[in-house]
Amino acid sequence: MSAVQRLRVLVVAPERHPLRQPHAGGLEAVVWNRVRWLRRRGHDVELCAAEGSDFLGGTADFLLPSPRWERAGDVSDSDNPVGHRRRMTDAFARVRRRLAEPRRRVDVVDNHSLHSDPILWSRDSGVPVVTTLHTPPLPEMVKAARSLPGSAPHRFLAVSQYTARAWSAEGVDAFVFPNGVDSSHWRRGAGGDGWVWFGRIVPEKAPHLAIEAARRAGARLRIAGRIGDPEYFAREVQPRLGDGIEYLGALRQPELCDLVGASSVALVTPVWSEPFGLVMAEALMTGTPVVAFDSGGASEVLAGLPGCTVVPAGDVDALARAATVLSRGSESATTRDHVRAGAAARHSVARRHREIERVLSMAAQGAARAGDPIRAGETVGADETVGAVGA
């Protein structure tokens, strides 16, 4: 441990999927790495997450219910089965009661839930809460945030300036705290002659457009990721497979790193307001160039980094042309080292986690109320800043 105090932290995970590999998405990967790192630093960390998650230990106090779908075809990353919201509310009420017990009291809650209830714990129980905003504004979370009095020990972080501006427009101000990638896990690869697309297979990520781009360029494309919307996969992805387009399923991180690192270019095709886009930073960390649709925070994440091109959202021809250009020469060791070095300088998870440790410590000490806040533009590490939007 450094000079930072040893903390008792409750990390509240996104509740829809267990926190384990293969990760359900970038959000789950970020929180999984957070728990692992905080524990390695010597903090006393408990996890509130769906059953089946890593790091839960033997207690059932902080288990959250996973959605119970009646039919496999009903599975969705955006909807909930009947009764699920009530089960979640009951589960979070149980957690709040546990936190009120002196023996279960924590110094700070590191909240990544997409549910509104953990936001209110700072108001109702007085426990310091740091909530990271990983998505566009969600109405119930906005309502909860607006209900917090100024005295509530709560801090909001957002994963990009784009996301912070979106929440600020709804009256919720946040400091910008981008996601990070573990460079010890995402190693540099040697490249290859095929293209890659990886991530959640859902309509808003639009892998079918990556397939169309590869077809127009005559390129081979491999796709990896969890099917979050079976109907979309069956309608838009599965019929396009074959003849050089291959779906590999959901891969654990080591296998996914090998796949991405053995590719000549990674395609990122969001057609929604992408809050961050962790797959971009992960691909670059392997030395693989990235071409992405200019949607949400994508251009912010990639701005100024080597081996990147941003094209207009939905423009498949531009995507195909840019990917073709970036793929040329991407097996060069010099090129891949340069791409990886740029990604590591901006998106290193070690740097991010050292700073979140300080944020959690300050929240636990009530520093924001004692006149020692993180100020807009304050330097973080050698060359990074945390900026406040609307603060």
From TrEMBL:
Domain of life: Bacteria
InterPro entries in the record: Glyco_trans_4-like_N
Glycosyltransferase listed as a keyword: yes
GO molecular function, one term: glycosyltransferase activity
EC number in record: 2.4.1.57
Name of the molecule in the record: GDP-mannose-dependent alpha-(1-2)-phosphatidylinositol mannosyltransferase
Gene field: pimA
The Glycosyltransferase subfamily 4-like N-terminal domain, residue ranges: 25-184
Keywords: Glycosyltransferase, Transferase
Transmembrane segments: none
Keyword field contains Glycosyltransferase: yes
Pfam families membership: Glyco_trans_1_4, Glyco_transf_4
